[in-house]
Write the structure tokens for this entry.
Amino acid sequence: MRKLVYAFYNDGFSFSGFLRKYPDERVHIINLLIGDVFKEGVDAVYGPMSEFAEIPPPLYEQVDGNMIAQVPTPEESDLLLSAKYLYYDDQPADSQ
């Protein structure tokens, strides 16, 4: 859905121009606009749409397409689960 918003606000993009060139994508655009973002095949619309607007990469991938594993360290896991809030003054002197 984020990609659709990027296309919509791009100066060179129009839904009518896109759908004139790719009428088969009409169903996918409708599904995205009504909120069926998890329906199979709706992501296929972004390939043809990239001809009309710059489409950003997914948030969970790097630009080269490799997945980034974000596994917290044991200390970070303990902190995340502890509900302890850290402020600047709470940091140890050696980490400043």
